[in-house]
Amino acid sequence: GSPRFRRHADPQGSLVIQGQKPLSGPDRRPSLDVDYHQRVYDRNGVNADAYGGLNVRPGQPAQP
């Protein structure tokens, strides 16, 4: 899911957390996580924090 995944990462990392819920899978999750970190880090280093928080706190979105 590169096209739809990119769409969520475009606006903000917070939205990605929700989009990953339905896509959460044992086969796609690891792949998406890596891509998510790279995309977010490239746009905003601060948002990169969401990458780790996503796994630790999926209910709490990253703060801008």
UniProtKB/TrEMBL annotation:
> Region Disordered: which residues?
1-32
Domain of life the protein comes from: Eukaryota
Q: What is this protein called?
A: Hymenoptaecin
